[in-house]
Amino acid sequence: MPSRYPESVYAVEPEMFSRWVLEAVEALPAAYRARLSNIDIAVEDWARPDDYARTGTPGGHTLLGVYRGVPLTRRTSGYHMVVPDTIVIFSGPLQRLAVDEDDLRSRIARVVRHEIAHYFGISDERLHELDAY
Fold first, then answer.
1. Mean of the per-residue pLDDT values for the chain?
2. pLDDT value at position 126?
3. What band does 109 get if pLDDT is binned at 50, 70 and 90?
4. Would you say residue 44 has pLDDT above 80?
5. I want to staple 93 with a disulfide (CB 3.0 to 4.6 A). Which of 62, 82, 121, 123 is the partner?
6. Do 20 and 112 touch, CB atoms closer than 8 A?
7. Residue 58 confidence (pLDDT)
8. Residue 125's domain spans which residues?
């Protein structure tokens, strides 16, 4: 998920950040959580160059999270015995943007929901249409 927000800073210990990511996943409606399969949720400091290429994120933007995998809507009968897809939440840019704990937790939850939407096959364009960006 790219960002164009002004920068601030609210840093937390990595364990706390990871806990808030897990809480954001656990806060998803049960019907959605039950459909999550063959997916890992990870935290990394910053996006890798291939994440920018994969998402088509233009220069001057910052990725807050990324879905690395095959969306449910594109999986075929040949999709089996594969390594798990991964949703990655990037702690560095989110902490740079956050002004306080509530803001950071809210941003984490929003990025988690956004990347989960990609797992379910919802594109950035459709998220814009739904005003979910």
1. 89
2. 85
3. very high
4. yes
5. 62
6. no
7. 85
8. 2-74+82-129
pTM score of the predicted model = 0.88
pLDDT value of position 60: 78
Number of domains in the chain: 1
H or E element: which one contains 61? none
Domain containing residue 21: CATH number = 3.30.2010.20
Closest CA to 63 of 53, 74, 73, 77: 53
Instruction: Pick the closest to residue 52 from 60, 40, 63 (CA basis).
Output: 63
CB 99 within 8 A of CB 10: yes
Are 63 and 57 contacting, i.e. CB atoms less than 8 angstroms apart? Answer: yes
Q: Which backbone phi and psi does 87 adopt, to 5 degrees? A: -105, 125
Q: Quote the CA–CA distance of 116 and 46 in Å, as a whole number.
A: 19
Q: Contact 90/46 with Cβ under 8 angstroms? A: yes
What the block records as the tokens of 130 is 């739904």
Token pair in block for residue 111: 């990025």
Residues in the chain: 133
Kindly state the percentage of the chain with pLDDT values over 90: 65
- For residue 113, how many other CB atoms are within 10 A of its CB? 18
